[in-house]
Amino acid sequence: MYNKKNNFELFESNVQSVREDWIDYNGHMNVAYYTLAFDKALDDFLEKNLEIGPTYVKKEKKGPYSLQANYHYLDELRLNDEFFTKIYLINSDNKKIHLVLEMINFNTNKQVAVCETLLINVDLNIRKSVEYDIDVINRIEDYKKNCKIFNLPLQIGKEIKIRKK
What we know:
alpha+beta; 165 residues; 7 strands
């Protein structure tokens, strides 16, 4: 987590449990709720680590929009399974942030899903992309430079395709 004392740690969300209304007809967590869980963790990360979450958006009338997301579903989560999300800041420029979110089964420590996403900063008044303010750019750069990342998910940058036999 980033704070004003320059303390950097890899972000891990709070532990969540799979709810009954998240279960689909296959008996496991529906893909829509993976997206919801990733989004909740992302909001927490943006708020606590980069200080560009809901509080910033409300005050500055600027905020992150999702440009692209790619999901990999690697294992099932079933009713009452507990999980958490790790978030890695991979890259950024003055408008965009490239992140990878990794969902982990709390009890088995197995990777459950990975979401690779690209966010862009948007001015909510004109509904157009704009550069981050310099203090935000500096905060993102500080976090990126100082948060040591080990063991990135292997799914980063993978394309979608059907392999020929």
